[in-house]
Amino acid sequence: MTPNMTGALLMMASMASFTLNDAMIKLTGGAVPLMQLLFLRGVLSSLLILALAQRLGAIHFRIASRDWWLIAIRSGAEVGAAYFFLTALFNMPLANVTAILQVLPLTVAIGAALFFREPLGWRRMSAIMIGFMGMLLIVRPGPEGFSLWSGYALMAVVFVTMRDLATRKLSPDVPSMTVTFLAALTVMGCAGLASIAEPWAPLDLRLTALITASSVFIIGGYWFSVRVMRVGDISFIAPFRYTGLVWALLLGWLVFGDWPSNLTLMGATIVVATGLFTLYRERRVSQS
Questions:
Q1: What is the pLDDT of residues 176-221, one digit of tens each?
Q2: Does pTM surpass 0.85?
Q3: Using CA atoms, how far apart are residues 127 and 139, in angstroms rounded to an integer?
Q4: How would DSSP label each residue in 140-155?
Q5: CA distances from 278 to 130, 151, 239 (A)
Q6: N or C: which end of the chain has fewer CB within 10 A?
């Protein structure tokens, strides 16, 4: 399997993991304050990552100073992205903030081309743009909500782009599990500090199970998101970020009973077709 094909599968796995995590959080129905939920999830995921990594021998902290700086930048970007994303989400419609965040395949691919001189041909750029248009059919953002809070969503895009590009520059000998653990630890610490300002809610068995499941899925999301930035060409892998929308549609239908409209299905078809075309072309190129 070529590095690009591996990267495409990792990106799809990352989007699936993050979407399943979101579904678990949504199923809590707001019964637990967000910062408390994120802190508890962070505690569980950090412990699980550490136990799994030590058992597999896949974690160490003997890292060069250059990579520590990159990890520090990445961790700071993780915190910034969470803050600006949540602030925007609480003050504008979900469709609007989702639409703004979907410029990430463009910003990451263009950033990799500008800073790392990675290839960005017209076919790959076209695939990204077509997938973006399919995404717009899914979320259909309206004119309302694009106000000051749109700037917060754009800042979240900036921080996620910074996070992914910093991951790209990490040395190959830095374990992905180490980066995953530090990301979970950073989010846990910041959420824990923020949770001090709000009262905590008691947990029953159902809420505990949902938070535990969320912790497992977020580990996959973190780990796959680190791995995907370390293989293949970003411009090739970028369109597969849109598959998260397809996962959201499937879970919305199966778990929450939300049947998508015809425009939504059309957009999802475009997103899937974009990914299949990109995979087909990669296979043709590798064979030739």
A1: 888 889 988 998 999 899 899 889 999 999 999 999 999 999 899 8
A2: no
A3: 19
A4: ---STT-SHHHHHHHH
A5: 11, 32, 8
A6: C
Angle between helices 65-91 and 176-195 (to 10 degrees): 50
Average pLDDT, the chain: 83
Amino acid sitting at position 233: D
Where is pLDDT greater, at 286 or 189?
189
pLDDT of residue 95: 60
Locate all alpha helices (DSSP H) within the chain, ordered by sequence.
3-27, 34-56, 65-91, 94-101, 104-116, 122-139, 148-168, 176-195, 205-228, 234-237, 243-254, 262-287
In degrees and rounded to multiples of 5, residue 260 shows phi and psi of: -70, 155
Q: How far apart are the first and last CA of the chain?
A: 15
Length of the chain: 288
Taking each helix axis from N to C end, the angle separating 243-254 and 122-139, rounded to the nearest 10 degrees, works out to 30
Distance CA 63, CA 47 (A): 21
